[in-house]
Amino acid sequence: QDTINQIAAGEVIERPASVVKELLENAIDAGSTAVTIETKEGGLSLVRVTDNGCGIPAGEIPLAFLRHSTSKIRSAADLMTVSSLGFRGEALSSIAAVCQVELITKPQEALTGACYSIEGGQEKSLKEVGAPDGTTFLVRNLFYNTPARRKFLKAPATEGGYIADLAEKMALSHPEVSIRLIQNGSNKLFTTGNGSLKDLIYMIYGRDISANTLEVQADSPLMQVSGYIGKPVIARGNRAYENYFINGRYIRSRLISKAIEDAYKPFMMLHKYPFTVLHLTIEPELLDVNVHPTKMELRFKQEDQIYKALYQALSDALSGKEFIPEVS
Ligand code: ADP
Ligand code: MG
């Protein structure tokens, strides 16, 4: 059983940044408005995530750490319409299988909080404690019980860099949530959670980029597109600045990248890639996010229409056409 859990864990948890990603997604799903991430040694020795979300009732804590246990979907049919970031119920069990985990949590309506600890999938204790509303996860010594896997991790500075990149993407994907990242005691990122994507772009990418963006805002029956795209003058040699989020989820998709790059073609030199921060809102029925455990890839139904709608939205913005809301 331990081995099975450790193998399953490997699909979800590859490195410290995966731990941070899963815990941040859970914090956001819990309705948090502020989340603090603290790491030591690039997350290898410690990842701490504190949120002010709904908390976990003491009686449900052990259940939350069981494999395939999720409070977010109830049936296979729900899978087709998931709007939460998590739904596979694999993160906590995977993290607990390969780390030493301590959880302190308290729902607002509970009188006291609970402190739970679990290491390598073995429950250690569950105690009543005083705690603020919300949830804190302390995750220590990633892969302490699977040394072979620990060897594949990079130096703390590199792993810490992956965490910083991830925190930026999560901040861009949820401008309404205040995100703070502290690495080895120093502040690396703080977002206000004021909801302004433009403020976030300024803060993360700086003035030169922020001042050279165009706003995109377009509605089609299948999809809503909003965000900012770079003028062709700030094109880059790679796709690192091509950000897009679908229903609040940071993903990679050939279809979406192609629609973006095709729209830029008339304005751009060969082998250059645009800066984009785009939020796409698509009916969950048209998506299949259950393709891969890390939920980074997804499939679309009606690919053609999604491609066309995005292509059109960007072409219009790039050619200076005003967005005129349809009168219905
Ligand atoms: P999933 O997110 O796919 O449901 P997880 O293993 O990530 O699965 O989490 C299991 C369950 O634990 C969640 O469904 C949720 O009920 C609970 N949970 C995890 N993290 C938090 C949190 N920060 N706040 C409140 N509940 C949480
Ligand atoms: Mg989750």
TrEMBL record:
Name the UniProt record assigns to this protein: DNA mismatch repair protein MutL
GO biological process terms held by the UniProt record: mismatch repair
Swiss-Prot/TrEMBL keywords: DNA damage, DNA repair
Function: This protein is involved in the repair of mismatches in DNA. It is required for dam-dependent methyl-directed DNA mismatch repair. May act as a 'molecular matchmaker', a protein that promotes the formation of a stable complex between two or more DNA-binding proteins in an ATP-dependent manner without itself being part of a final effector complex.
Residues of the full protein shown: 9 to 336 of 644
GO terms for cellular component: mismatch repair complex
Protein family (similarity comment): Belongs to the DNA mismatch repair MutL/HexB family.
Ranges where the DNA mismatch repair protein S5 domain occurs: 201-319
GO molecular function: ATP binding; ATP hydrolysis activity; ATP-dependent DNA damage sensor activity; mismatched DNA binding
Organism encoding this protein: Cuneatibacter caecimuris
